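Q: A reviewer asked whether we had any structural model of the full assembly, not just the individual parts. We don't, so I'm hoping you can provide one. Inputs are below.
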Amino acid sequence: MASNESTGHEPVVERVPTGVEGLDGVIEGGFPQGDLILLAGHPGSGKTLLSSQFLYNGATKYAEPGVYVSFAENREAFLRNMRRTKMKFEELEKKNLFKFMDFITVKDKAIDETLATVVGEIDPFKAKRLVIDSFSAMAQAFSERIDARIVLHTILGRMTRLNRVTTLLIAEKPLGSKLLGGGMEEFVSDAVVVLTHSIERGYLVRNLDVVKMRGTRTPGTRLHYEIGDAGITVYPALTPYPVGKISADRVSTGVDGVDRMLSGGMYRGSTILVMGESGTGKTTSSLQFAVKGATNGERVLFISYEESPEELARHGRSFGWDMPELSENGLLKFLSYIPDPGNVYKIFAEGRAEIQKFMPSRLVVDSLTSLERVMDPDEFFQTVRRLVTLGKSRGITCLATAGTSEGALPSDFWVSSPADVILSFRQVESQSALRRALVLFKARGSPLDSSIKEFVINQSGIVVEEKFADLEQILSGSGPRPARVEGWSDAFANRPRPKREEQW
Amino acid sequence: MVDRESGFTPQNTVGRASSGVFSISVSQKLGFVSVPVIGVLAIVFGVLDLDGGVTFQSSVTEAAIGVGAILSSAVIVARISAKSFLATGSSNLLLLGIAVFEFGLSSTIGGFIRNYSLGAGLQIYVLGAFVSACLHVASGILTFKGSPRVMTRRTFPVWFSYIGTVCFVLLLSILALDSTLFSDVGQIGALTQRMLIGSVVAMLLLSGFFFFRVYLRSRSPILYWYSLALVTVAFAFVAFFTTQVEGDLALWTGLGGLCLASLYFLKSVFVSSPRKDGASSQAGRRLN
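A: Here is a predicted structure for the entire assembly that you could use as a starting point for your response.
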């Protein structure tokens, strides 16, 4: 059992940790002790699994006995289903830490008797945790709706509070229905947790909403979760990090010319967004940023949503960067994912865990566009804001790339505003050849070098050259030269010699 | 339809003739006629010596021709060539710009120095023209055969070449004034001088030929006027070749030919007109 160390004059609320990964962290350590928690959810949303984890973790981690009262399935079916997980309830039964009570055949008149049996078991068993699965099934035994409400209000409520037994009351939420169970449970319960799922772009996305929890500061945003072999894992909300001390130190982007444009590099802890069309050198610039940091002895975490570590290593090798060696030295770490709406929150959780473990000084995300395609716009914005604040809160200098269409402006990549530095790469057509241009659209805290520079990608990576002096309208993608220069250049242009008969 | 003066067609900015019919504008015809006129005058005043012994010396007029016509046109051509090199990286354009700039600078400095030391002035004049003619031949060959391109870092070669040209002409001037190394070149009628002037004429005609061949391929009026300017300079040097006395009419024919050549150089630059398509992308319009 955990106690919540509240500040000020708030009363201390004893907490009952669920042991569900990611959930306790967002509800101040666990459910308030002795509360009646309504766990409502769609069919197949994992209500039984979550409540089983609540009991199993309570018994194994906190030595708190638990009782599972089922009106939906018998003991054998329950144990068979749980065998797929790593939860060994039979062993808990032997240790007297778990009791399964099966009431699937209970009828109207016997409900009072059943509940009396449950109450009678709780006390001698010294149960601290109770699950009733489900109130929806139990309520079907009542011929009158009012009877169900009375039972809920009086017997269950009193039973849990008097005995300080934290109770999970499962309610079914039919698909498409806005009601939770019978529409009365949420008013009697101390807390309401709702599990739902939806189909996003062809992928099943699971959502967890903590709608109500008395005495607890709940997350204001929707959480996501995943059901795996180990049970349910809840992923925290994408809320911004609190911004810590802002650094005035400059760090190199890895490209000397860009450092010069930024008056000596970007601020430590700031975020640079590299925008550009496909093939302009965004990934190369991000690798250069990573390699520069790693060669300076900084730890760099490179999260790629487009290429595997092997592909990135090969990419780097073409510029003479020995990234596998940097990885072996513990300076460079690659994480590679193919995000889809169903795994994106898991990816974030793994990335977050890796950041906590690896403690990088630099973070690369290549590219945000891959995330944008699989996320809800608001959540995507939160993701970008979280990335930017992550850098500021922990002093991690971040580089993120984003693919844009030809001639795009920062406003076209609508989440660009939180970035501290916006660097845009362009392809410019000139004389039947593609040239590359870069321009700084934004540089917070630095004088903005507004010139449009030409850059090349040679054997040592990106090299910034002089500014374009001979072309106009570079940002639009094609750079017509001043007319006289155009005419003069064309007249003396290098053209293949035509066949002899065409010459005269 | 080909806009002969601008050199632009709706499809092709070079203005390639579609039918193969050889037709030129009135101004181009007049320009073409002026070249043999200079040649005839050079023969009349220089070879046949029919000037009646008339001489005219005016340092002010010569300075005005040097700065107002030759140097100014050379700077304009050099500037557009440098910009074109920056845009395309074609080496022939860099050579072309250096050649014209070097010629304009050495002619002007040589013209000034002539007022104080005729021999030194002529040395600078002739040697400068010789170097320029060599560069023109190289540029003409590259243009004809297809020029290699410098892909990156183009500003440095431009600055290096143009500053190098200024240094070279200054060095040439110092050597002409302070040493006797090229003294033969400064003597009117001397074999060395005539050989050099003859070489200059030959090389200018050769480079003009190459540029004209490219013109025949592309029908670009820019190339027409440029090759005509080179041939006119060559004929002006023919006039210098026949000069026997300082200030005679053959010399003034040569100077007149240089003025005309300057006009043709300028014509080649300004014959191009602003783009007619004026297309720009959506982003470009938004930025404007």
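A: Points you may want to mention in the reply: The CA atoms of residues 430 and 479 of chain A lie 6 Å apart. DSSP finds 16 helices and 23 strands in chain A.
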